[in-house]
Amino acid sequence: MKCYVCAQEGKETEAAGICIVCGMGLCTRHMVREDVDLWEGGYPFPAQKLEKKLPRILCPECAVALKE
Asked: What is the radius of gyration, based on Cα positions, of the chain?
């Protein structure tokens, strides 16, 4: 799998990870490691945000979107 962001820039770089949100392949230069909130609760909506966060690999676009 190749890095999607590099491919858009005309480069060919092997992906080292996948964005947990959109599934985009990412090289180490374009992957973003974020600690994402965890929610407890069931269907239809999570009821409570937990104190712990979970480390995740995101693409730059999803990392920005999750902060908004």
From this structure: 14
